Task: inverse folding
């Protein structure tokens, strides 16, 4: 039985299980799904339980010769993609709260130095952004006009902020998943602000009936550590064909 909610499992399993099973060997499953959009015509998902799932359009499966294969390992899958000129976008590590940890989260109270932000906080948020690097702003993608925004203050100064928006990744998807970004100004990192802000905003999203989702690049060890410190559990690694792919 999964430690994650049915909302989360249904969200991910829908594109990765609907269609024709081309291969199912060991922990690897390959599916041809005709409903995938062009920008998602090939995806790979490695789950925390050890399963590896690849899904692609029938046209892509035919081009790569998957209809003619009767056995494949995960290593061979990746080699086949590489040989065909398929480039996968940098992997996203995906984190969610387990059902048990969600219960603990919902029993907490928001601390006094953390509160929601709105348009009335435009000036303080602009000051916060001005104190961050362009790279940090791009990586975090925290915006005042997002669906949910929370911040931690020292006095009147915003030192950490997180924002969320509903995440509809697949055509026709109506799963209630809320994706978050978080940014702490450099002088205040390592002091627990981000962990508390992440928990506060995830609690607010959960109260609105959404599953909080934390994503980071696979090589962003600091961000992955924050997710775990905030009580989220690693769900898996998600890779999508790159816009620059030759295939």
Result:
């Amino acid at each position: 039985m999964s430690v994650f909610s049915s909302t989360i499992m249904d969200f991910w399993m829908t594109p990765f299980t609907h269609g024709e099973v081309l291969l199912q060997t060991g922990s690897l499953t390959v599916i041809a799904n005709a409903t995938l959009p062009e920008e998602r015509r090939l995806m790979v998902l490695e789950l925390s339980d050890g399963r590896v799932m690849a899904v692609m359009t029938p046209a892509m499966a035919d081009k790569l010769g998957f209809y003619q294969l009767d056995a494949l390992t995960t290593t061979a899958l990746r080699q086949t993609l590489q040989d065909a000129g398929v480039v996968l976008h940098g992997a996203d590590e995906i984190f969610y709260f387990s059902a048990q940890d969600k219960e603990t989260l919902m029993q907490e109270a928001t601390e006094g130095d953390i509160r929601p932000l709105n348009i009335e906080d435009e000036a303080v948020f602009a000051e916060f952004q001005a104190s961050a690097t362009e790279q940090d702003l791009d990586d975090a993608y925290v915006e005042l006009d997002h669906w949910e925004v929370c911040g931690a203050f020292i006095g009147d100064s915003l030192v950490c902020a997180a924002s969320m928006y509903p995440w509809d990744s697949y055509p026709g998807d109506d799963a209630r998943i809320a994706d978050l970004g978080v940014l702490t100004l450099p002088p205040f990192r390592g002091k627990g602000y981000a962990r508390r802000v992440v928990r506060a905003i995830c609690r607010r999203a959960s109260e609105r009936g959404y599953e909080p989702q934390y994503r980071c690049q696979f090589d962003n060890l600091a961000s992955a550590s924050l997710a775990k410190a905030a009580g989220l559990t690693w769900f898996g690694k998600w890779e999508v064909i790159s816009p620059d792919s030759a295939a």
